[in-house]
Design goal:
mainly alpha, single chain, elongated, about 85% helix, about 110 residues
């Protein structure tokens, strides 16, 4: 597993960085949807950027499910489908939470 290899090499410092990056992207995504309630175009652009960064993190650690969810939501942002992005939010955030837990629970010095 890609995550296993990364965390084995990078240790706790790398896992802490992944957790911080995930939290930051989740926050930006949620904030962007708030902006979209008053400025749809700007909110969708901000959401697309947050999702793109989140997808990059997911690809780095091998979280293909999260990567696919983000790619689909990015496309919805590009199409201007705010309601569909809002509906995808819960699944994306739940997957982020599961990945964060997996990373936090990773025992340093062992493999998954």
């Amino acid at each position: 597993m890609q995550l296993d290899a990364l965390l084995s090499l990078g240790g706790r410092a790398l896992s802490d960085q992944f957790v911080a990056d995930l939290a930051r992207c989740e926050t930006h995504f949620i904030e962007a949807l708030g902006v979209a309630s008053t400025d749809k175009r700007q909110g969708l652009e901000l959401a697309r950027r947050a999702l793109h960064e989140l997808r990059g993190i997911a690809l780095t650690v091998g979280a293909t499910s999260l990567s696919r969810q983000c790619a689909k939501a990015e496309a919805l942002c590009d199409l201007g489908h705010l309601q569909d992005v809002v509906e995808a939010r819960a699944e994306i955030l739940a997957t982020c939470d599961a990945l964060t837990k997996l990373i936090r629970d990773y025992p340093e010095g062992t493999s998954l």
